[in-house]
Amino acid sequence: MCANNFKINFVDGGVCAIRGVKTAGFREGKYGISIISFKNSDATGVFTSNKIKAAPVLSTRETLKNGKLSAIVANSGNANCFTGLDGETDCKDMINLVADELNISSNEIAIASTGVIGRRLPMEIMAKLIKKTANNLDDGLSSSTNAAKAIMTTDTVHKEAAIEVQLENGDKFRIGGICKGTGMISPNMGTMLCFITTDIIANSDYLNKALKKAVDDSFNMVVVDGDESTNDEVILIANGSSNLDVNVNEINEAFQKGLTVLCKNLGKKMAFDGEGASKFLEVEVINAGSEKDAKLASKSVVKSALVKSAVFGEDPNWGRIVAAIGYSGADFNPKKISIAIGSDDINIDDFDLININNINNNHNINNNHNINNINNGSKNINFNNNSINNSINNSINDNENLIYLVKNGNVLGFEGTKSLKNAEKAMKKKYIYVLVDLSNGNHTATAYGCDLTYDYVKINADYTT
Amino acid sequence: MCANNFKINFVDGGVCAIRGVKTAGFREGKYGISIISFKNSDATGVFTSNKIKAAPVLSTRETLKNGKLSAIVANSGNANCFTGLDGETDCKDMINLVADELNISSNEIAIASTGVIGRRLPMEIMAKLIKKTANNLDDGLSSSTNAAKAIMTTDTVHKEAAIEVQLENGDKFRIGGICKGTGMISPNMGTMLCFITTDIIANSDYLNKALKKAVDDSFNMVVVDGDESTNDEVILIANGSSNLDVNVNEINEAFQKGLTVLCKNLGKKMAFDGEGASKFLEVEVINAGSEKDAKLASKSVVKSALVKSAVFGEDPNWGRIVAAIGYSGADFNPKKISIAIGSDDINIDDFDLININNINNNHNINNNHNINNINNGSKNINFNNNSINNSINNSINDNENLIYLVKNGNVLGFEGTKSLKNAEKAMKKKYIYVLVDLSNGNHTATAYGCDLTYDYVKINADYTT
Asked: In which pathway does it act (chains A, B) (predicted)?
């Protein structure tokens, strides 16, 4: 176990940050098509666990059994789900259209769809958009943005990110992605689609393990409304253009961490843009008895309709937080629990202002402490600053920007207290951070979500999605 | 297994429908006190499974180990939860005040609280209200209503019900109850409290088994927002004033069914009055492979934020229903599923318009089919008419008021179809009934809920509860 130092920097270009990847995306009304092309790459996918699976999900799962892809096509505006044999035919027709345009085999094309359930795809529009998109594939930086925009549905901003990982010897590899929607295990019906490219050399089996691990710590920790879509897909392709092989130990480790950082970044952007969201909510549970407990407790708080409503109302209602932890299934002693709140004003791009130096090999990315450098005078908020050598507990206790409402089971946030008043002020900002210390072990997890607003209800009551 | 015929009729009086029970309730501002007095009765309770339990929950759980109660005291306005040793003292003081007023032992008094978490009880107000309430105990019909009103928090209407069960030989016994809040396993934070009285002769162990079974099929099938309170209590007391002993077989069976009918009635009223609710949602899953599957699927639909938003928007969005069943964990074949919608205009009192004749001993109360007699020309809607001898499937398929959107996996509710238009019209009514046929066995379950509205968000964003 030698120390393995590497740096992670965010770079421009999304999926096209990787040499050899071309993309484009176009819209017509509520419909959009994105194509990502990368020629004969190793590939894997993670799919919805909903018993109802859309035709494109079933098709891509089958295609990926070969572990190879040359292109991905995705459409917005129609989920092609619960559409029977007609839907399967439409799905095949879309793939064949892309195969013809790109002159590749239909067995190397993944497909994904997002939009309304139970309606036939408008194939004329699809055909026209596929042709236009295929003819405009490009590796320029803006093409990834266009592709990210073409798959948006109720999203209000497109989501993309790319990182460059620099090893100690100077070698570099990249990972880039675009996504839409709100999460994997508990997304809303807008469907979560994510396409990730990397220039590492890795086979499909390795990529699958790495992707599952990264998704577990990122997209699966994002909760917007607890509904799970019929169409969720995350696809990862590796085209090997960096000439760096993941079988080398230090590359392996750097890749896994880099992939998790990228997925967390995209996951946070999803939560930030959750349907109707006015605030971004991050709940970190530390000192849990197990990783499972930490995840149960953090997700329970982020998922609670009452906590989400309180966040919308800018009410530091720690009673609801305590209750949500209480019914989460996590083990803890109420007399030892601590709850603190922090906040800051951020916008979505701030998630990319990060410079990760992996100084301490044992410092897990999950274990970074996100609030440490908030309000440090710089606009460069280090949301994931895991370069700190302090132990987590020390840094938390020392942090004057955290407002404790409950400490070791004692209530500090009673009505009329300075703590509660400070917390009320803190709740007015855009980014709300909740720290829960269970004092029951040394496991940590962070979940991401957003508030429950009038607009969430409006979006989902007014429109068939 | 002889046929056991009995009739269940709703009667007036709530908890005071039972001879020997006195009650009263008074409010002062946001605080209220209810006392129910019944002298040395057999008793049992079911409590929240939240790890965080309020002081009154811990106290009552301890008291009920003796299986005997003489009174119940409940307050609204403050949950006395997460209040440490001070909270335990306040709880004991309240009990002692009641013991003094009623001249009974403090070991025979159950206590329950509902309201804001983490604040000390205002003991001066509590003492004043307890004195006033204890001095006004009465067995008149209106006293139960006053008690039900005094425990309301965000409730907009008080909830009470009582039934009289008449056996074939003419013997009668009664069960009455009052409640507030929204459900047991998945209530909102308003806390679910329910106090049930009966004149049957039964010991505490029997009552406990009967209550758990009834709660599982009623309050545990009510979902308003999926949050589970720290203060939920359901208490059942039997004072034996009917002189009918539950150890007689036919009484035993009639009591269990009667108790379930009463709890379902109160559960439906809770869902009807869910926070911010504008519509009552009932989801019945039939022909499931197991009871567990039926419960998973029905609760998943009722709990889905997207389904709830669609109901608010009067949108018959069967795609979201299909998706919610898909991620419920229930086993089924998407190609065999059927989904239908029915509706009617009702008000909360219609839940009491019921006359249950238990003609067929094998016809389980869970298996009745609720929509059958809707729109039958009478205002007496039989929501739980289980006197029908038809098999469930026949009666559903014959019912012209059910609008099928999916039948045996085929979509009937495409855009522009008559089915979808009829369903859109149906969604405008107050009571929305969703029938899901999994064609995977012969198990049935019904879950109750409400829509997700702007008012839900407003209520929970604007006020600390």
From this structure: Amino-acid biosynthesis; L-arginine biosynthesis; L-ornithine and N-acetyl-L-glutamate from L-glutamate and N(2)-acetyl-L-ornithine (cyclic): step 1/1
Nearest to A33 by CA among A56, A52, A53: A56
| H/E element, A397 | helix A392-398
Q: Which domains does chain B have, with CATH numbers?
A: 6-272 (3.60.70.12), 280-457 (3.10.20.340)
Which residues in chain A are contacts of B318 at CB distance < 8 A? Answer: 118
The token pair that represents B292 in the structure block: 């567990």
Distance CA B74, CA B151 (A): 7
Q: Which two tokens stand for residue A58?
A: 């079933």
pLDDT digits (tens, 9 = 90+) for B163-188: 999 999 999 999 999 999 865 545 44
Task: Give binding residues of A as ranges.
Answer: 153, 180, 191, 275, 460, 465
Give the model confidence (pLDDT) of B336-388 as tens digits: 999 999 999 988 888 887 555 543 333 333 333 344 333 332 223 333 333 33
Chain B neighbors of A312, CB-CB under 8 A: 457, 461
Given a contact cutoff of 8 angstroms between Cβ atoms, the answer to whether A432 and A280 are in contact is yes
Q: Give B449 to chain A, closest Cα distance, Å.
A: 15
Token pair of A335 as six digits:
């007399």
Give CA–CA dist B309/A453, Å, rounded. Answer: 12
Radius of gyration from C-alpha coordinates of chain A: 22
Provide ipTM, 2 decimals: 0.78
Q: Are strands A431-437 and A280-288 parallel, antiparallel or unpaired?
A: parallel
Token pair, residue B363, equals 């016809």
Query: CA angle A163-A5-A395, nearest 5°?
Result: 85
Of B52, B454, B464, the CB nearest to A334: B52
Contact A51 B325 (CB under 8 A): yes
User: Cα separation of B128 and B33, whole Å?
Assistant: 10
